[in-house]
Design a protein that fits this description.
Blueprint (H helix, E strand, L loop, with lengths): L19 H6 L10 E4 L3 E7 L2 H6 L7 E4 L1 H13 L3 E6 L2 H13 L3 E4 L1 E3 L7 H7 L5 E2 L4 E3 L4 E7 L5 E6 L13 H5 L4 E4 L11 H15 L3 E4 L3 H6 L1 H11 L2 E5 H8 L4 H8 L5 E5 L5 E8 L35 E8 L15 H22 L16 H16 L27
Parallel strand pairs: 1-5, 1-11, 2-9, 3-10, 5-7, 6-8, 11-12, 12-13, 13-14
Antiparallel strand pairs: 2-4, 9-10, 14-15, 15-16
Helix pairs in contact: 4-12, 10-11, 12-13
Length: about 425
């Protein structure tokens, strides 16, 4: 596994750099590798520039999202192709994006559960999905279906207004029988999205997500939940709060989803409320940056050397150099928080906001998986005297997530094409300074 984020040499963990004399005695002593699992509605994101007349002709409402019948969606897609209006077509899905970015950053394996068209032709959406997904994402566990994967068509008019046409295809047909229990229970994390619970009553996707979450809980595997959109949460706020309390370790959300879930408009206050149900929270807040909040045992607290920040919780970042833990693993749990402003003040020109939160989550998953990897290979390390969720401090993880999120904002695709550069002339070493 590639190490998460830039570090000073003393923090690097070369678990393969064994004493050569020991290597002769133990030739099979190879590092144990792990993986991250996720369940997604497999779909492609299609972006096209159209005139308002196009929307009117197809009965689409400007600025809104509309679920279409397959025949109607096919007609729209066919016309876009014939008129050359499509600007881009990328593999999408919030979990697919997250696992792809995780595998690019970590240079390590992830496993995706979902559906895939059993017949794939060149140029189809299924073909595009496979072409734009990292080879480190294991797609061998996808369930073959006789039909198309999902399509999310974003139609942009000259005034910049975005309208969405959704073709579900077969994306919610993943059966619980097609999940692999061993893969889930041996993973460093299981990643789910609130979208999975939005399927129709006859579709098995929600049952698959609940089954996977239960298997993960039984094995002590962290369950990660991304909140989708505020509209999903608003309809069933109490239900989601209970689901998080029963199944979820880490909640990833933006400030709008945080408001819908907790009733708190302030991102820090929303994070604090979510800690009543979960162990760790990531909240992206647009131009305000991002917040991380978690729990740590009193004996493991480490004070920051940065200025203490004001907010709804005064001096909330005092213990941001601490590493988060499950609340159940703390004898005397204390809540810890950190905040970071957008990297380099944010991009001069934002090309794409779709996927920035998924990219930040991928960085956090990378650090969690690195911690699991290191614990398995160097169990006697001082890093594991207590059972932490991440290898790095809350502050350090926020810097890594912030940097990765920036990389997605300055490109058209929500998926990284390469990992972060080892050295950056524009990045002062002070950015990474602080507790690991």
């Amino acid at each position: 596994m590639k190490f998460p984020g830039q570090r000073k040499h003393k923090h690097f963990f070369p678990v393969e750099a064994r004493d050569p004399r020991l290597s002769e005695l133990l030739p099979d002593n190879k590092p144990v590798s792990g993986h991250v699992c996720g369940i997604d509605q497999v779909l492609v994101d299609i972006e096209a520039h159209v005139e308002p007349e196009f929307l009117a002709r197809h009965g689409l409402s400007r600025g809104h999202s509309l679920l279409l019948a397959p025949e109607r969606a096919d007609a729209i897609y066919r016309e876009l192709l014939e008129q050359g209006l499509i600007v881009s077509e990328f593999a999408g899905g919030t979990i697919g994006n997250t696992l792809h970015n995780y595998s690019v950053l970590a240079d390590d394996r992830s496993v995706l559960f979902g559906v895939m068209s059993e017949t794939i032709r060149v140029g189809t959406s299924a073909y595009r999905y496979l072409c734009t997904t990292s080879s480190r994402v294991d797609l061998n566990y996808l369930q073959p279906v006789a039909g198309s994967i999902g399509q999310c068509i974003t139609l942009i008019t000259p005034d910049g207004e975005r309208s969405f046409a959704i073709n579900k295809g077969m994306m919610d047909r993943l059966s619980p029988d097609h999940l692999d229990r061993e893969q889930i229970q041996s993973a460093s994390a299981l990643v789910l999205t609130a979208y999975l619970m939005r399927c129709e009553a006859h579709e098995p996707m929600a049952d698959s997500a609940r089954q996977a979450a239960e298997w993960a809980r039984q094995a002590g595997v962290p369950v990660v939940l991304t909140m989708g959109t505020r509209f999903i949460v608003e309809d069933r706020r109490d239900w989601w709060q209970q689901f998080i309390r029963d199944h979820v370790t880490l909640v990833a959300m933006n400030e709008d989803e945080g408001l819908a879930l907790t009733g708190e408009a302030d991102p820090l206050a929303a994070c604090d409320r979510v800690l009543e149900w979960a162990d760790l929270v990531l909240c992206t807040a647009g131009p305000a940056g991002l917040y991380l909040a978690g729990h740590a045992d009193e004996e493991q607290l480490r004070e920051t050397s940065r200025p203490l920040l004001p907010g709804r919780i005064p001096e909330f970042n005092r213990f941001e150099y601490s590493r988060p833990m499950r609340r159940a693993d703390c004898r005397r749990p204390r809540r810890i928080y950190t905040h970071i402003s957008p990297y380099m003040g944010g991009p001069a020109r934002i090309k794409n906001t779709n996927g920035a939160g998924d990219a930040a989550l991928a960085a956090l998953l990378h650090d969690m998986a690195a911690n699991d990897y290191h614990r398995q290979n160097v169990p006697g390390s001082a890093k594991h005297r207590a059972r932490h969720l991440t290898y790095s401090s809350l502050s350090q993880v926020s810097k890594y997530a912030n940097r990765v999120s920036f990389e997605v904002l300055v490109q058209h695709s929500p998926r990284l094409s390469r990992g972060l550069p080892e050295r950056e002339d524009s990045l002062e070493e002070a950015y990474w300074a602080g507790e690991a």
